[in-house]
Amino acid sequence: MSAAEGPLVVGVDTSTQSTKVLVVDASTGRVVASGQAPHTVSTGAGRESDPRQWWDALREALHQCGDAAREAAAVSIGGQQHGLVTLDAQGDPVRPALLWNDVRSAPQARRLIDELGGTKAWAERTGTVPGPSITVTKWAWLAENEPDAVRATAAVRLPHDYLTERLTGEATTDRGDASGTGWWASGTEAYDDEVLAHIGLDPALLPRVVRPGEVAGTVHARDELPFSKGTLVAAGTGDNAAAALGLGLRPGTAVLSLGTSATVYAVSTRRPADPTGTVAGFADARGDWLPLACTLNCTLAVDRVAALLGLDREAVEPGAGVTLLPYLDGERTPDLPHASGLLHGLRHDTTGGQLLQAAYDGAVHSLLGALDLVLDADADRSAPLLLIGGGARGTAWQQTVRRLSGRPVQVPEARELVALGAAAQAAGLLTGEDPAAVARRWGTAHGPVLDAVERDERTLARIAGVLSDAAPLLERESNRN
Is 193 a catalytic residue? Predict the structure, then answer.
């Protein structure tokens, strides 16, 4: 390992499927070592994972980093949001964690909305209208379906909280991750006693919310961690807030994250409260806000269309007149949970490549609809869109976003932005800097900028027209049997 210019820090991304670790030079942002280890998620009706696997994966990923991890002066953990971790009096999991994509609590979400004043009241209280991904609904589901597990629970944590606590021995969380629970009030920035009382959750079971820039604790010597005793531990945060740190986002800069599903978000100085529930009013990890909208159908849906056509995902062809709404998993933006894919305008001369381009168009149309809802009214809508995630380096994705947005597109060269954001947060503990400023100093958002092209209003209008006309069909709950 070549000599580092400054102290080393560790950033962790504990996601749904794996844990990734980066050891970063706090002075330059250079990644000097990395590691990764998997964990498993259940299949079937629920999506669950044993938190102890996350800890084992963290240990393994750290050991892959070798001596660099031992030299680190600070560490921070970014983690998958919303997961419900229940611990007993000894700190062991009562049961596997209910993950963000476990939707069994949809009935409880609908009931909680009705019981506590409706969507507008929830948006004003917590910033977010609860859906089945939000943690408060998962606790309500557990109370109804597994009361013995609730009675055995002595502590409630989020995934990143669990790992941070095992590092420090202290029960802590941060405002970014807490804002995705449904029991943290965005107006007061404190746990909401009325919500907690309504769901029967004792606030004494919850972790302390650490302020931005505050040290959560130090690594204590156990479990054969490669850290030195006394290594500083930052508050950590949820994965979207960590990625925002990793990009060094300033207010008004829009991010389009292209993954299996897609997210659109921007830092805002205004507290969001969307009564439609489309925009989640999350807090960021710095003291501002991170309004975020999600579309369910992105790279996986388009790749599925390519596979059905027997085409490479880049084998698109231009052509007007055909519209494909790739809502293969239902859709969240627009709010069509029962929808399936819809094809309109098929002709004898329509080619497979044109169908594939139509799938890209349909997915990006949804994404840009979400973007309009996330950005503040005074945001610069001519500034480059930051394109990240698995699809960001795909030419077809880049060109479709350019054509339908009419905006320049920037593709950051840095990868593993959640882990980089956590590393920037750890570096901020050492330097006293704003973690986003640390990331900007590291140049994490640097990358090629693709110039704007004329916005394809004709295609946008055609898709909007088909979506409007087909609304009754898309809203109908289908019978797949």
Answer: no
